[in-house]
Amino acid sequence: MNWQDISYLNSGSAIQKRAFKCINKLQVFNLLAEYSPILTGTIPIGISIDSSDLDITCRFMDADKFERKMENLFREQTDFKIQQKEKNGYWVVVASFTYQDFPFEIFGSLFPPTDQNSYRHMLIEHRILQLLGKEFRLKVIQLKKEGLKTEPAFAQLLKLEGDPYQQLLNMEGVTDSEILQHWNKS
Question: Which is an annotated Pfam family here (predicted)?
Answer without folding.
Answer: DUF4269
